[in-house]
Model the fold of this input.
Amino acid sequence: MNQNFEKLIKISEFCRWLVLFSAVAIVGYLIYCYWAYDDIRFNSRNTQLLELWHLASANRMLLLAILTPLFITFLLGVYWLQRLLSCYQRGLFFSDESMKCYLWLVWLKVAALVFEMLQTLGIGYYHQSFFEDGRIELVLDFGNITTILLMLLIVYLLKAARDYEAENQEFV
Done:
């Protein structure tokens, strides 16, 4: 096997363990903050969410329900990234399985963008029911849109490379 492929396989294994360890650390930190400090740290950039969380009359179960789709998207993203890196670790860089994993990651990124906007709207409307001066600010992060577009470009390039490789195999 080519030395570069062997390096890619080792890097994929390292990244796979790094992603798994990071995800466990993040979930552990979130659980610790929830139980130890009665604080919610997931999507802590949303000041309205934090304000509602510390308000005694706000329904915390509703707030957790609003956060759940984005958290599930995070967990699914970790799962599909693990599967993708597993394919790479086995040397399946252009396989149908790795392409499927990568497409799932792209669609999960799109879903996370949509869920984040819906979450901002939901929390904003719920915040307005307690505070009259509350505003809803729907921020569209162009970094996320650029990332999604780049991921779609990579999907296209991977498919083209796979087709090129298949064409070369037929020629030989």
